[in-house]
Amino acid sequence: MKVIPRAEVADAAEQILIVPLTETHLEFYTKIAQTCSLKSNIDLKARAEPRKFSGGEFCPQFHLDKDEDLKGKTIYGIGSPGPFTNDQDLMYRTTLWATAAKECGADAFHLLLTDMPHARQDRGHLEEQTKKVRGKPNTIRHWAKQAYVSGIDSIITTHLHSDKIYPYFAEAYDVEDGRQILKNVSLECILADYILYGSSLGKFLDKGGEGIVIVGVDAGNRKFTDDLLSALYLPNVSKVNFDKIREDANDPNLITCRLLDHSNNFNGFEGKIVLFADDIMDTGGTMIKTLNYIFLNYAGADHGLGKPDESMLYFTHAVLAGNSHRDVQYKFMKNFPHIREMVTTNTRPYISDSQDFRFKRVSTIIRLAKLYGDVILKHHLGRDITKEYIEFSNAEEQHEFLKPPGRDPLYTLKRHSLHFMAKAPKKDNEIVLYDRD
After folding, report:
1. In what order do the strands lie in the sheet with 74-79?
2. pLDDT tens per residue, range 384-394
3. Whole-model pTM?
4. Three-class DSSP category at 383
5. In order of start, what are the domains of the chain with their CATH numbers?
């Protein structure tokens, strides 16, 4: 590893202008901008404001002086979907921001979408005639066309739901590979680093991690969990893969799962911790079905593989049924007391806003503002951000890159004061009462 010359970074920071696609969670976007600009005091709305007319119509505005334009500037629009800014609203806003930027003379307009909207709508009536898809549009293909027409030069996201999306961008932009336009930053190494250095799994890391079983809940989840297994650098961690059958779209009650295969070193669940890691938790139906199977929660169930002691659940994007996110948290905390930790990120920043009290006791949020600032700078400098944060030689090199000594780490942790790993507040030895008389 080598340090990029500060002058090169400073030049890049001077050329970049960060644009908030919405006013929701402006603090999150500001922290990203602070990393990009190398400045601590920034007002994002001073240069670019996500304005609305009194009737509600969105009309963004760059604040420019007379005869001023955006020549020499590269614009990075940042947005996160959630219950306060839905996917379709966010995606339409991006097209207006890009149009405004190009009409004002910007050199380029790039998007950082922390969780790619409509990523799960990657099939439509043309691709598949099954019951759950018949008659529906392929929304992500449609949006790829809109992105091209609007002048969006590239899109950056994290933990993309499916590789099926890339060809739609290749088609819309007339390039050989959609990865030239849609760039995915994978997070398996950040999760692995957290497990190794920041989690409560210490006792399970002994003996090469033989106390850990990684669970792949379905076919789409297999690559990420395989990559996580590699990034842990623990030779005795085992892995099992499940197959998911969804009988109807978005109905968690119509999901069945079955054990498909496992690693050669897997010798059962007895006395171990099972580690789930997926890109999205929405209603949680797939994870619930798999947890019930593994922990023998069905009447008369016996898969013959023993029963684990505990579980740890990770999901990058905390969709959690949108406005019902507290209900999903409550459901997991009530029905699965064996959950040791629930870990997610702030790609949907509202996860920090409202939490069930049981969820507060076991949840850790991996905060990624510094990572996104690093991603934007390196993208502007021409680095391959899809490979920059993965595939290290060993756990030590990985840790040093993500949390360099003497410098800001690329991720930080947020836990509630009720969290079981939080330091207990200091208590006095005696109670002191004061009388006003």
Report:
1. 16-20, 74-79, 108-113, 154-158, 182-185
2. 999 999 999 99
3. 0.91
4. coil
5. 6-185 (3.40.50.2020), 188-367+400-414 (3.40.50.2020)
